[in-house]
Amino acid sequence: MPRTLDLAVRKAQLAEAVWQVILDRGISAVSVRTVAEQAGLVVGSLRHVFPTRAELLQFSAELMVARATERVRATPRSGDPRVDALAVIENLLPLTPDSRAEMEVNLALIAECPAQPSLRDVRDHAHAQLHETCVRLVELLMGRPRDAELTTTARRLHAIVDGLALHLLHGQHSDAEWAIAIVRDEVAAIADRR
Q1: pLDDT tens digits for 152-163?
Q2: What are the GO MF terms of this UniProt record (predicted)?
């Protein structure tokens, strides 16, 4: 059991090193050598865990999605659909230094899809998860099961979340209240269709 745990810890350490290289120098700087250096390892140790750059990038992307999913699932629930939906959406937006960094790395990994096709599945899975989260939020807010109107409303919410995330990434974190106001208005408009 300890070897499995050690391997899981080592993989996470290497994924985090990939993220840091991306944040510091960009996706083009990610190589087995630069990631090993960032993690404080020799190249051979990294290659033992991830024989190729593609495997390293894929795991890094998968771990990022898993951690974001855990964060959203851990959002405390109040029982008030509007409050709960707003809290979940806030966890999806780059409002903290960690979530901003996550978004920057995520965009870099998405941009790498043409060169690393294995990242497409991760990208598509994350997109589908976000869409499903929006559907569930709209179901919660509208108090009814999925139908054509609800699906369209969820797509709109998904587009708003994606768009706000990009705008927030390009702006300053201290200027995020406008984005929260947009989300609050959208959540209220959805809930009023109940």
Answers
A1: 999 999 999 999
A2: DNA-binding transcription factor activity; transcription cis-regulatory region binding
Give tens-digit pLDDT for 41-100: 999 999 999 999 999 999 999 999 999 999 999 999 999 999 999 999 999 999 988 898
Concatenated DSSP letters for 23-91?
HHH-GGG--HHHHHHHHT--HHHHHHH-SSHHHHHHHHHHHHHHHHHHHHHT----S-HHHHHHHHHHH
Is the domain covering 53-192 a CATH 1.10.357.10 domain?
yes
List, by residue range, all CATH 1.10.357.10 domains of the chain.
53-192
Task: Give CA–CA dist 141/81, Å, rounded.
Answer: 6
Contact indicator for 190, 116 with CB cutoff of 8 Å:
no
Dihedral sign, Cα of residue 122, residue 108, residue 161, residue 177: positive
Cβ(154)–Cβ(135) below 8 Å: yes
What tokens were used for 193? 């269709």
1-51 adopts what CATH topology? Arc Repressor Mutant, subunit A (1.10.10)
In whole angstroms, give the CA distance from residue 104 to residue 23. 7
Domain with CATH 1.10.10.60 in the chain: 1-51
